[in-house]
Amino acid sequence: MEWFQRALAEKPTLGDALFNMGNVLARKGTALAKSGNREEAVGYFEASLQSEPDNYEARNNLANLLLELGRIDEAISQYRMALETKPDAAMVHKNLGEALAAKGKLDEAVLEYRAAVALTNDASAHYSLGMTLAVQGKWDEAVEQYEETLHLWPTNAEAWYNLGYALRMKGRLDAAATNLVEALRLKPDFPLAQFNLGCVLVDLNQPTAAVAHLQEALRLKPDYEEARRKLESLNDGANQP
Q1: In this structure, what is the dihedral angle of CA atoms 195, 199, 202, 204, given to the nearest 10 degrees?
Q2: How many CB atoms are closer than 10 A to CB 114?
Q3: Among the residues of the chain, which ranges form H helices?
Q4: Contacts 24+ apart (CB under 8 A), 130-137
Q5: Considering only CA atoms, which of 81, 39, 34 is closest in space to residue 60?
Q6: Do 175 and 204 touch, CB atoms closer than 8 A?
Q7: CA 97, CA 95: separation in Å to the nearest integer?
């Protein structure tokens, strides 16, 4: 940190020093509960970009900080400016997709995620694309993206879960159960996966196994009311003559 301060004192417009100072403050800021250092980091990135406006990495980092701070519109603007400088920056396309999704602009987010995966076969971009398509109810396309994610990132328990959930929504119950079981193999303390596997097993007429998973969901998350209601409905049905 000290050499950054000396460089800035000698030449306040030194872009590299400002950029590196911003990175240091950003890393420190993300470790803090309050956003004070992130706000300061924003200032350094902005100063750096006055000296080096075409530094798309600095602009992307600035946008990331703005997004963390909830300044979504500003973040979107900075990501777009970064892409004007570097149109083939896959990570910037993905980050812009995240910001647009946060604004509820899902169609635009999908376009950015698709641009990212076209430029680099990145598992996290496929996953974000799948999540957005799922929110839109485009289950077939979501399944494709989750499958591609898992081809590249087979230990991602959340992707196995989301693939299982999407298959459940499509009525492919056996395949849904298989994928939910894999999610739980990788992450046993996953109440959502326990609950959804329980629901699938109910639909597959396997109530005993379903009860076990619903009970485990409640053990992991005692305030899981949806799981509690599902379990109570099964117990009520079992008690009826």
Answers
A1: -120
A2: 15
A3: 2-10, 15-30, 36-51, 56-68, 72-85, 90-102, 106-119, 123-135, 139-152, 157-169, 173-186, 191-203, 207-220, 225-239
A4: 130/159, 130/162, 130/166, 131/162, 132/97, 132/101, 132/106, 134/162, 134/165, 134/166, 135/106, 136/106, 136/110
A5: 81
A6: no
A7: 5
d(CA 154, CA 221): 26
Buried/exposed code over 116-147 (b: 16+ C-beta within 10 A; e: otherwise): bbebeebbbbbbbbbbbbbeeebbebbbbbbe
At 36-89, the pLDDT tens digits run 677 777 877 787 777 778 889 889 988 998 999 999 999 999 999 999 999 999
Q: Which amino acid is at 6?
A: R
- With tokens 């949806």, the residue in question is 226
